[in-house]
Amino acid sequence: MANVIIVGAQWGDEGKGKVVDLYTEFADVVVRFGGGANAGHTLVVGDQKLITHLIPSGVLRGRGKRCVLAGGMVIDPKTLLEEIAELKSRGLLQDDKDLVISTAAHVILPEHREVDRLRELGKNAIGTTKRGIGPAYEAKMARRGVRMIDLIHPERLKELLLRSREELAQYIAERGGTFTPLEQELEESLAYGQKIKRYFTDTSSYVHQEMTRGRHVLFEGAQGALLDIDHGTYPFVTSSSTIAAGACTSCGIGPTSIDAVIGIAKAYTTRVGGGPFPTELGGENATVSDAALGEQLRKVGHEYGSTTGRPRRCGWLDVAALRLAARWNGMSGIALTKLDVLSKMKRVKICVGYKVNGREMSELPCDINEIEGAQPIYEELEGWDADTTSARDFESLPTAAQRYVRRIEALVGVDIGLISVGPARAETIMIKNPFR
């Protein structure tokens, strides 16, 4: 038996979709443990490209791979049903048993999306996806949220919708927003519930039983460690726990059940939306040459948001931040993605620390003011003018690329067990499999 947590080790968009898809070949159950439809996993299998937002990447492995949406998620039922329909049209999720949804997961309501939209119009916008994630988590913490199980109880649901409107009415009205008419929202929500209830279960009990049976369970995170609500670059964070501990909280399992934690990191760094980004190659104060390098990374790496289509901010690999993510997650291995994007660069840089207010720091500071003033300390390495996409073992990589990978391992103190050298499944070097 092996139970493995996979998390993003940067600011999200690390290529989790492909890596989870690869590891699910060896897993029996794949659990999505946090976030909502603000996540987007782009999967390329053969000549097919598929983007999932809620359902775990393991769905691509077909019948027999159980996909679980755990209680720590916030779910937009309309988006969920659209995604299920899309997957079914591609011959996936043909067996209802292949999808399990927690009755305790919270529901994203239309007013949550409206609040999110209105906030992003103001001066304090932080660059959310406007999918209603934050407001839904706020309702959960305020103990006035709607849970999935409430979608099949009309009286209870109506009571909760009325309370939601009472709480949000003034904010929405003052900003010129609107509510969906109550009866329409109630009718639509109940209809969603009738369609989704076939997948409902107590996912904590379900996952525990699968573990007891000796089944391999993979826990799939959303976003990245540096966006964690407690530990990330607050307030430019998401609204849920994105680190490995969040899997245990969301699923109702003990940490002693976990055998390995794999952190996914790009061979460079990206960030979407607002917030500090010390190694960014771009922005208002960037030199012409740095801006050109940032644009090269964006173009070659196709760095545009899966959910929003927004261009991602790009920069050199920040090992000081990655080292912090490794500590938070107790990472036992790293999956390094998009190494191929660095091909044909004469020199590559790694941020090994920062200068902050006259002193050197080896990890990303906790104070947002210090992060914004942090000056990266770079180590420069030789690049490689060679294609890496055909490499299937470590020794087949260009020598300079091998040195780059080994240097990352040495600086972070965690072994790299997988290297992605292209978007396709086959374009991967598997060094160590956590399920074996």
Can you walk through the features of this model?
With 436 residues, the chain is of the alpha/beta class. It has three domains: 3-105 and 198-262, 3-Layer(aba) Sandwich (Adenylosuccinate Synthetase, Chain A, domain 1); 107-195, Adenylosuccinate Synthetase, subunit A, domain 2 (Orthogonal Bundle), CATH 1.10.300.10; 267-430, Adenylosuccinate Synthetase, Chain A, domain 3 (Alpha-Beta Complex). Helices cover 31% and strands 20% of the residues. It contains twelve helices and 20 strands. It has helices spanning 16-23, 77-89, 110-119, 133-141, 154-174, 182-196, 203-212, 244-251, 288-300, 319-329, 368-372, 399-412, and strands at residues 3-8, 29-32, 41-45, 48-52, 66-69, 74-75, 99-102, 106-107, 200-201, 217-220, 260-266, 269-271, 313-315, 317-318, 333-337, 347-356, 359-361, 375-382, 416-420, 428-430. The strands form five sheets. It has a ten-stranded mixed sheet with strand order 9-7-5-2-10-1-11-15-19-20, sandwiched between helices. Strands 14, 16, 17 and 18 form a four-stranded mixed sheet that branches. Helix 3 (110-119) runs parallel beside helix 5 and helix 5 (154-174) packs across helix 6. The protein starts with a strand and ends in a 6-residue tail after the last strand. The model has no long low-confidence stretch (mean pLDDT 93).
